Amino acid sequence: MDCKELSAPYLTDDLVVEILSRLPFKSFSRFKCVCKAWFDFSFDPHYSQKLPKVPTGFFYQDRHNSAIQLVNLSKHDEGIDGTLSFLPGYEHLELVDCCNGLVLCEYKSNYTSADIFRLVVCNPATREWRILPDTRRKADEFYYTTKLGFNPLQFPHFYVFKFHQKRGPYNFVFGVSQLEIFSSSKSTWLVDSCLWNLENNDISVNGRPHVFIDGFLHVHTDRDVLVLEKLETTSMGIPPRNWTIKLPLHRVDCFLDHCVRGCLGQYSGILHYAVAERDGCTILVWSHDYYDPDGWTVSHRLSMRDAFGRDDFVHYEDGWLWTCNYEIIAFDLERELPDPEPVYDDEAMETDES
Q1: DSSP class of residue 109?
Q2: Cα–chain-centroid distance for residue 342?
Q3: Other C-beta atoms within 10 Å of 138: how many?
Q4: Is 84 in contact with 122 (CB distance < 8 Å)?
Q5: CB 181 within 8 A of CB 160
Q6: Strand pairing partners for 70?
Q7: What is the pLDDT of residues 190-203, one digit of tens each?
Q8: Which residues pair with 15 in a beta bridge?
Q9: Which of 73, 236, 329, 352 is the most buried (most CB within 10 A)?
Q10: Which spans in 114-263 are helix H?
């Protein structure tokens, strides 16, 4: 039954949205799943700002305290259990990653063998959870970086990506040698060794925030963005395709400079990248065009002096190696903010060349 046909003779779209806007987020999420017209309102530029928003916040864990905590940034507390106390043995959890409402943790206790990876994915809002099949680790030979991918608006399944990176002398990381992918639809791990070859054996995935858009995983490497696509094929035992996107403001000394401080994000399904200019006084937010290999354009600027009343955050040593007193860990372009300073193509070109 089409709810649009039932409501159209009596209520306009404006009135329907006005009613839906008064619902708690959880109720709205349930209702829009059974009515396509209500679901479409979420993607309408005019109506989406009026509808209940996804609760926002971030999880953190002190290295010296095993308790996981949630900082809730929503206007209304949704009663989310930020300590994950609904999980068995939650006091032994180590926070690994988060993505669109799901949380990835690893069990670490005296009862878990040191060479075992035991991961659990949970939804703090619904208190549902799932323990993944154990995998092996060789801590003396490899460094592991694990990412979670999930987009409930497009795919019902989640993915977990575990990058194996060869560890060298003095803990130097040589690059990704193997990738393990878990799909909740298949319930098994798929091993992919195709990332290790003569051309990209220096790809080293770091712990910077990643982005999951339209089923594409975007992760930071030391110099660019590694993209994995066609993840649905993993359920058939076929590894995903991969390629890299060069970051804006890329420099030869990127490892010691901009790429360490930059942060990936997304807005309206488009990949964005926030990074400080060389003087650290301004943060540039770049928008990427997939149809143009070098398609980065500046969409927003943030003046540190306007935001914090000062801009003396960057210090140089020996005239070239910089240290910065702030780090970009996330950015949100969907909140209501003043209109950004307009950016023209010639300004973007000048920034790119500096």
Answers
A1: S
A2: 27
A3: 10
A4: yes
A5: yes
A6: 59
A7: 887 766 554 555 67
A8: none
A9: 352
A10: 258-261
Q: How many other CB atoms are there within 10 angstroms of residue 265's CB atom?
A: 18
Structure tokens at 290: 């997939």
Query: Strand, coil or helix: what is 56?
Result: coil
Q: Which pLDDT score, from 0 to 100, does residue 5 have?
A: 53
Structural contact between residues 176 and 205, judged by C-beta atoms closer than 8 angstroms: yes
Rg (CA), the chain: 22
- The residues pairing with 236 across neighbouring beta strands, listed in sequence order, are none
Query: Tokens representing 179?
Result: 């990738």
Residue written as tokens 């991969």? 242
Diameter of the chain by CA atoms? 73
Those residues of the chain that have pLDDT short of 70 are: 1-9, 26, 43, 53-55, 63-65, 73-79, 139, 170-173, 194-202, 235, 250-261, 293, 317-322, 335-354
Using an 8 Å Cβ cutoff, are 258 and 248 in contact?
no
Residue 66 contacts residue 38 (beta carbons within 8 Å): no
3-state secondary structure of 259: helix
| 226 and 241 Cβ atoms separated by less than 8 Å | no
Ramachandran angles phi, psi of 176, nearest 5° = -70, 125
Classify burial at 311, counting beta carbons within 10 Å of its beta carbon; exposed 0-12, middle 13-18, buried 19 or more: middle
Q: Which pTM value belongs to this model?
A: 0.75
CA distance 234 to 59: 29
- Residue with structure tokens 């806007």? 21
Distance in angstroms (rounded) separating the CA atoms of residues 25 and 125:
11
Report yes or no: 102 and 148 within 8 Å, Cβ to Cβ.
yes
Contact 55, 125 (CB under 8 A): yes
- CA geometry: angle at 142 spanning 140 and 143, to 5°? 110
